[in-house]
C-alpha cells in the first residue's frame, strides 16, 4: 500500500470512528417473548419456545442497527410475556428510569412478548421520567421461522429510539412498520404480524420509504408530565378485572374482594353495563372503600357515565382505556389516593 493510500485509509477510519461515536446511544433491554423464540423447524409459527435467545444473539442478527445507533444490550428476564408480573414490571421500570437519567443513554428499546406488550408499554408511559424515546418491540413469528418479523421490527424500533422525532411522544410500540402510542394501542389478532393497532384513534406514524414519519401525538398526560412514581414501590395494590357475560353473577366480584382487591375493573357489556346481581356486589364493594372502575369488553369507544345508579353507587369510568390498561392506571392511582373523585380525574387525564 502506498503512503498516500495509508493516509487515506487512516483518514477514513478516523471519520468512521467519529461518526460511530456520534450516533445516538440506544440500550436494548431484553425480556424474552417470541422475538427471542425458537422452534424445531423453520415453518413452525406456533408452539415454539418463547424467550429462548439472549440479547447478544438478537443484536448480532441485525448488524444494520449499527448504522443508526450505538447499540448495547442487557437481559432483564427471559420470559414468555403471559407470565409478566408486578415484580418484573417494577424491576424493568426502575432500570428504564436509571438508564434514562444517564446522559450516556439517548433512547431505550425493550424487546418483549406480544401477549402483555400493550400493558408494559402503557405502564412505562405512566412512570418513565424522561422525554427520551422508549420503544417496545416484539414479533409474532419466532426468530427461527422463515419470514421472521423480529429482525426488521428490531431494526425499526432502534431507528425510532435513535430519532429526534420520537422525543417527547411518550412510550411507543414499533412493529410491522407502524408506530403506535402506548395508551391507544392494543393487540388485535392472535397470530398475524399486523396485530398491533390503535383502533379508531390511529397510529402515530409509520416507517416507510426508508423514513420515520410521525403524523400526530396523544393529548393525554405521560412520562415527564405524569404524577406517578415507582422509585419507592416494591409492589402494587391488587386490582382484579371482572369480565361480564350472559348469566353474570356476583361470584367473581366476591372472590376478588375475598382475595383483598383494593380496586376492581369491570369489563362491562356495551357502554360498561353491569348485570344487576353483579352491580349489587360492586355497589357494596364501593361503599366499603374498594374503587370500582367501569370499562368495557367492547373494543372501541369511551366508557362513559350512563345509568344514574352507577354514578350514585360511586362507580368510575375508564374513558377509552381497555380493561387491562384501566387496571394498571387504577393500581398506580391507588398508590397515591383512594379518593374516587381524584381517581376519576386521573382516568380523564391519562
Ligand atoms: N407468548 C409470547 C409472549 O408474549 C407471544 C409473543 O411474544 O408473541 O411472550
Per-chain topology:
Blueprint: H1 3-22, E1 25-32, H2 55-60, E2 70-79, H3 86-101, E3 107-111, H4 117-127, E4 134-137, H5 150-161, E5 172-175, E6 178-181, E7 186-187, E8 196-197, E9 205-208, E10 211-214, E11 239-243, H6 251-258, E12 263-268, H7 276-287, E13 291-296, H8 308-312, E14 316-317, H9 323-334, H10 340-349
Parallel strand pairs: 1-2, 1-3, 3-4, 4-5, 11-12, 12-13, 13-14
Antiparallel strand pairs: 5-6, 6-9, 7-8, 9-10
Helix pairs in contact: 3-4, 4-9, 6-7
Bound molecules: aspartic acid (ASP).
Describe this structure in words.
The protein has ten helices and 14 strands. Helix content is 32%, strand content 19%. Strands 2-1-3-4-5-6-9-10 form an eight-stranded mixed sheet. The chain has a four-stranded parallel sheet with strand order 11-12-13-14, with helices on both faces. It has a two-stranded antiparallel ribbon with strand order 7-8. The chain is globular and about 60 Å long. The relative contact order is 0.10. β3, α4 and β4 (134-137) form a beta-alpha-beta unit. Residues 10-18 have low confidence and may be disordered. The protein is an alpha/beta fold and 350 residues long. α3 (86-101) crosses α4, α4 packs parallel to α9 (323-334) and α6 (251-258) runs parallel beside α7 (276-287). It starts with a helix and ends with a helix. It has two domains: 3-225, Rossmann fold, CATH 3.40.50.1170; 239-349, 3-Layer(aba) Sandwich (Rossmann fold). The site of aspartic acid (ASP) has 12 residues, from loops. The active site is at residues 34, 114. Residues 1-20 form the signal peptide. This is Type II asparaginase. Keywords: Hydrolase, Signal. Substrate binds at residues 81, 114-115.
